[in-house]
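task queued by scheduler; priority normal; single chain, no ligands, no partner chains; default sampling; output format set to structure tokens
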Amino acid sequence: MSAGATPAASLVSLLNVRKSYGKRGRSVEALAPLTLSVGRGESVALVGPNGVGKTTALKIVATLVEPTSGTAIVCGHDVVGDSGRARRAVGVSLGSRRSFYWRLTTRHNLSFFARLRGVRGARIPAEIDQVAREMGLGPNLDLPVRRLSRGALARLSVGRAMLGDPTVLLLDEPLASVDRAGRELVWRAIERRLAAGACLLLATHEPEVASRCGSAVSLAGAPRVPGRAAR
């Protein structure tokens, strides 16, 4: 990962990406200019307190929010000019409990979102079984999502992001409410995908979570977190 140049080989490249909003006649900066690149097999944590733009940066890479200025490229595709192709390359977990269908089972939710990701036919049950195994959700597959614990919901959100084998994983506070055993399940699933050539951009305020990534980028003067490469 480089916080300077953004090489063409990078899966994610941000060059002076900034986001501001108009509020009550004045401009409010949601993300100060950010430059970074993330290559295959790399994991990068965005660290800092709430309100410094970590989630905004992820949403820009996910094509959910357009930058006010700067350039964001995902797998060679501009997130504004070629948003459809950029979007197909990413798997996103923004930690929203309201993003599932609460009356449907875990299995039916995963099946629905797998189809949205372009998974078809016999691959759907195979992917559901894999996600359930990796995230420790086997006993929950036939339970309505409304009955899941907060930790299980967080693991389900990460598992959903992995459907369809995205090249770029974008995870926002993915381990909030997840216990120690569950965290290890999530990290092992991430590490398998990094070894296969995907990359990870993760937002967190937890030093322990950031330390599991290969690099950390501090936003708005937050303390830099020493990182180690994900196994």
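post-processing summary
- The domain at 1-89+166-231 is CATH 3.40.50.300 (Rossmann fold).
- The longest helix spans residues 180-195.
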